[in-house]
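Entry type: protein chain
Record version: 2
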Amino acid sequence: MNETITFAVFAGGLLGLGLYVLARALFPGERSPVSAVARVDALRARGFHPGGSPSSSAVPGAGGGPQQPGPVDRARGQLGEWLADVFLRRGWEMRSLRADLALLGRDWEGFLAQKVLMAALGLVFGPFVYGAGFMLGFVSSPFIPLWLALVFAAVFFFLPDAEVRRDAAARRRDFRRVVAAYLDLVAMSLAGGRGLPEALKAAAEVSDGWALRRIRTALADARITGLSQWQALGRLGDEVGVEELRDLANSLALVADDGAKVRASLGARAETMRSRELAEIEGTAGKKSQSMLIAQLLLCLGFLVFLIFPAGMRVFGF
């Protein structure tokens, strides 16, 4: 009896704490000046004026642009914007996840809306699995436990995070390979007599791949905003989470006036990136070789059991 009362009190307290945290997250207090300025910057980046009205260039369908989104897409967009505003008010920056999304070219609001919709799907999928198990006879009680729906909702809620982390890790590896080749091209352009700004721009125009397009866009934005090109590369490294670009920007800021030092620095950095990539490839190949060896040993063990089992049954008289 005492254990039941203790469990009920503990469960009630835990439920009340969860409801309090949920209420604080959904209905935050007064917006701080910092969050208000950040919200204005975010709206301006999406093409909105501070007053909240969209600019003429950002209105869908204006001037022959994209057509108006459907009601489902519009509701999903409004949900994502509301969730992004909640995150902004609470100060939840999620920089690593934002860098992964920026590398994949996905927007933050759509990702938050996807997480909530996946959690809602998990709430429905949990009872569906339990009902299927009840119909097949695997479970005896027809009452669906609440914890099963909550577990599936939590798992589905974090599935987009795992997907983004996996895709961003693969895309970041490709980006590092492109950066290593890009540094070699810049060094070759410098050796041909070009200046550093011209070499950075010319090396980014040799291909139309997505990585070099991101670098070209960053360099073009630097000319518009008045930043130096290595500062633009450093900002791009911060945006997509590639440390090599940040280190490159710092080194170029130190030796930008000396062409010989720039060439030596770029060559050494490209060689370091290739050596690191080669070491990672060798490590991955070693892990795969070990996995294949374990699989082959398990197959051999199963084959030996298959051969010995009939003889063992005869010897022991079964």
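Comment: Confidence is low (pLDDT under 50) at residues 47-65.
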